[in-house]
UniProtKB/TrEMBL annotation:
InterPro entries: DNA_helicase_UvrD/REP, P-loop_NTPase, UvrD-like_ATP-bd
Disordered as annotated region, ranges: 520-555
Protein name as catalogued: AAA family ATPase
Coiled coil spans: 21-48
The organism of origin for this protein: Streptomyces oryzae
PROSITE patterns reported in the protein's UniProt record: UVRD_HELICASE_ATP_BIND
Sequence ranges assigned to domain UvrD-like helicase ATP-binding in this UniProt record: 225-628
Keyword Cell membrane found: no
Ranges annotated as biased composition (Basic and acidic residues): 537-555
Sites where the protein binds ATP: 246-253
UniProt keyword list: ATP-binding, Coiled coil, Helicase, Hydrolase, Nucleotide-binding
Amino acid sequence: MNAQYRAEPETVRDREVDAEQRHLERVYRRLEEKIHEAEFLMDDASKRAQVGTPGALAERDAQVFRAGIHLNRLNSEFEDFLFGRIDLLEGKTGERGPDGAYTSVEPADGAVRHEGGEQRADIVETLHIGRLGVLDADYAPLVIDWRAPAAAPFYRSTPVAPGRVVRRRVIRSKGRRVLSVEDDLLRPELKARLGGEELAVVGDGALMAALGQARSHTMRDIVSSIQAEQDEVIRAPAASVTEVEGGPGTGKTAVALHRAAYLLYQDRRRYAGGILIVSPTPLLVSYTEGVLPSLGEEGQVAIRALGSLAEETAGAEATTYDAQSVARIKGSARMLKVLRKAARGALDLGLRTPVPERLRVVAFGSRVELDAEELAAVRQQVLGGTAPVNLMRPRARKLLLDALWEKSGARRRYEDPELAAEARQGFDEDIAGEDGFAAFLDAWWPELTPRQVLGAMTDEARLARWSRRVLRPGEVRTLARALAARLSVQGEGPLSVHDIALLDELRTLLGAPARPRKRELDPLDQLTGLEELTTAADRDGGGRRERRAQERTERTEYAHVIVDEAQDLTPMQWRMVGRRGRHATWTVVGDPAQSSWTDPDEAAAARDEALGKRPRRRFELTVNYRNPAELAVLADRVLALAMPGVAPPRAVRSTGIEPSFAVAGDDLGASVRESAARLLAEVEGTVGVVVAMRRRGEVREWLAGLGERVVALGSLEAKGLEYDAALVVSPAEIADESPAGLRVLYVALTRATQRLLVLSASPDLPDGDGVPDLLRE
Ligand SMILES: Nc1ncnc2c1ncn2[C@@H]1O[C@H](COP(=O)(O)OP(=O)(O)OP(=O)(O)O)[C@@H](O)[C@H]1O
């Protein structure tokens, strides 16, 4: 906007908005200068490339790399670039840090004067906070990166502990226009002056305004309104394990995502090893995956659903869910013993070709044979080792040759050990050269895939053998049937979420197939560890980017692992996730009251095993930013039943709108559709309809044609998501689905930001007002 044509500001609000507008314009001018600089660098670098000496090429790559970072970030972060400001008193030491800001957070002793019964002070420093730091031509900060230490007071200061902050301002802008400002006065008792004028204060409740906004199908970042208790978690040192607990809506997921961005900012080199965020469902992945790019970070962070975590290792992704009774068995730590036996036992099954019963070879002109019993003894001896089954093959080969040598009687013919060794070498070469021996080995010690072993477990009798004294007969039957319902004996077919952890475990037990892969070290990675850039070398050669993408998908260990909804990981899933962070630091966020896992003690033990002996630092989040108080009260009743004695988080908002209740007619589908339509008319944004898992299929049909604002969810899929309005269908059905059903219902009842409608069916025993038995006071 051109300043000449701007209307005269009239109110304090207009004047303050106008001042921020002018600052934003300065920032943009500076950003444009930086972009030109970056483009010039790119251009210059490509000219240097024509020189063509190796030194010039390396220099070009380094230059292009740096310029690329600039361009990429500047271009992508123009939207909503600047969002905060703090006005500060003089600091205690008055020293400026490397970014130009005063480092001290405490006011200097004489910063506040007492005059005529009043407290007076001058603002000596104003800092603007944004998504990226920008310095002016004299290296003075125009904008401070939200993750910089100097920005911390923007999030941390409170009226109780204001530090140097007098006024904290949230600036709402879109592109190049400042739309509004909202101030918090942190020292209301103080008469502060800025540039000779009294400090102005505009509006209130930036946080409340953010919370009241209509929801879309993607999560927004909270960078402009992170609260103090959240900020402490985001900036917690990354050493060892950071554990965060908090009720629904306390911002655990938001905090986890912002923490990933913060860690990268703090130590980009260290986290070049990648940050993994583990999410329970693909729905939650797609809901949250836009947040990191909005914070300027994506290349180093992988957000994965539990069901697709083994994609790069076991080549498998889950498409289905198990019934709770099956999930309990598949997720149990006891499965490890079963899988160990299965991985070994599957060798005997002739999964590819029939297992030969004897081995006949010709060595030194005479036949040597091992019979079934002798072969079994050799197998037994090989399996005495601890290596992964597929990797035991060389040892199997060696022990077979030993047995044949022994059987041939040749050993006894040589007394001189040197001659014996020579003869033995000839013997081995003779046998190993035979096609028959190689074919025998392939059939007798086949290279097994995880899917083949899982397929082998579809046979009940066989599974019973492998799980003797581990699973009960009823569990064996349930598991074998559940596997057989989806998988062929070769293991082909759709996998469930819980199968993925089993496959991943099997892959470890079997060992990776021996396929040598050449890995080139990328000099650019070593330079700064960034991956997301296109360089001139990429464009010239074309192949590097593809290779990088491939390497990224093949990454199986990370520098930092963030587990969201950690209360839901089964022991087998903890093992799967643990393997990806053996040398990592961790952030684990969750809420035991929302756990859908039926045996919390078993899961806690597996979690301890995954996290090892690393020291842990615990944080608790206590404020519910999602649910209005009117809805939270209802959910708290279920919490009291599910986890007696656990304190619910404090809801900060109130809308004055109570939850509503309805009773379904004979046609449940029609009632659900009608209720969903009612909610769609009441809110601007999204509506989530939560049903018991077994109704997942039919609810989609019931809601067909109602448009994209409405989403159908099985109770377990609702985890972590939120909607303007939620329709919870038959609380009793959800609660009765598993021993953890009440906690799952608690999740369902805490999804709404504005309205909640509970639709009862007959198992709910609703009273005259339609309130189901479970939710009555
Ligand atoms: N400081 C904040 N400023 C603005 N919005 C916030 C803030 N903290 C949390 N929120 C909002 O509150 C909602 C709940 O946050 P989030 O989903 O991270 O909570 P959660 O603790 O993970 O919940 P659940 O346990 O139900 O998964 C989100 O819409 C989030 O954007």
